[in-house]
Design brief:
This protein is α+β, with helices and mostly antiparallel strands. The protein has 5 helices and 6 strands, in the order H-E-E-H-E-E-H-E-E-H-H. The protein folds into 2 domains: 103 residues, Topoisomerase I, Chain A, domain 4 (Orthogonal Bundle), CATH 1.10.132.20; 68 residues, 2-Layer Sandwich (Gyrase A, domain 2).
Length: 186
C-alpha cells in the first residue's frame, strides 16, 4: 500500500458516506411530495420484499400528491399494506388501478420530528467518517512501522486525512441545512 492509495481511499470512503447520507435523506418527508418518499418502502411481491420503484411507476402530479401505478394490478393489496405500515403517516387511496397518496401539510410538531431525524442521520454519517479516519490513521501508522513510508510522510498523511474529514463534514452540514430548510418551508 502506498501513500497515494491511502489518500485516494480516504476520499473514496468519505464520498461513499456522503452519497449514502443523501440517499437516506431523500426518503424523509418535506413540505412537498416526492417520488423518493416511497423509494425505501418494500412490498411483499410473491414472497420477496421489493422496492416500490421496481414494481410500479411513481409520479407526482401535484405538490402534495403521489400516484403509484403497479405494473401488476394483482399486488394492490400488498402495496396498500406496505404503504400503511410505512412512516409516511398517510392513508393510501386505491381505485383498483392506482394508489393515491395525498400528503397533508406538515404540522409544527411533525416538522420538528423530521428535523430531529435529519440531524440524527447526519450525526451517524459524521461518526462513520470519523471511524474511517481512525482506521486510515491506523493504516498509515502500520505503513510507517513496516518502513513503507517515513515518519514525516506519516504525519503528512494524518494531516491530509484530517483535512479531508473536515471538508466532508462541512459537506454533511450543507446537506443537513438544505434538507432542514426544505422541511421548514413547506
Amino acid at each position: 500500500m502506498s501513500y497515494e492509495t491511502v489518500v485516494s481511499e480516504t476520499e473514496d470512503k468519505f464520498e461513499k458516506a456522503l452519497t449514502h447520507l443523501q440517499q437516506q435523506l431523500r426518503g424523509i418527508r418535506t413540505g412537498r411530495a416526492s417520488s423518493a418518499l416511497v423509494d425505501n418502502i418494500k412490498v411483499d411481491y410473491y414472497g420477496t420484499p421489493t422496492p416500490v420503484s421496481q414494481m410500479a411507476s411513481v409520479s407526482v402530479p401535484e405538490p402534495r400528491q403521489i400516484i403509484i401505478k403497479p405494473f401488476d394490478p394483482s399486488i394492490m393489496k400488498e402495496l396498500n399494506k406496505a404503504l400503511q405500515k410505512s412512516d409516511l403517516g398517510v392513508t393510501p387511496q386505491d381505485d383498483g388501478k392506482v394508489v393515491r397518496l395525498n400528503l397533508p401539510a406538515l404540522s409544527g410538531e411533525q416538522r420538528n420530528k423530521y428535523v430531529g431525524k435529519v440531524k440524527e442521520i447526519c450525526e451517524e454519517t459524521r461518526v462513520a467518517m470519523r471511524n474511517s479516519r481512525r482506521d486510515l490513521n491506523k493504516q498509515a501508522d502500520a505503513m510507517t512501522k513496516d518502513g513503507e513510508i517515513t515518519q514525516d510522510d506519516n504525519k503528512k498523511l494524518h494531516e491530509e486525512i484530517q483535512e479531508s474529514l473536515k471538508t466532508y463534514e462541512a459537506k454533511v452540514d450543507q446537506v443537513m441545512e438544505k434538507k432542514i430548510e426544505e422541511i421548514q418551508e413547506g
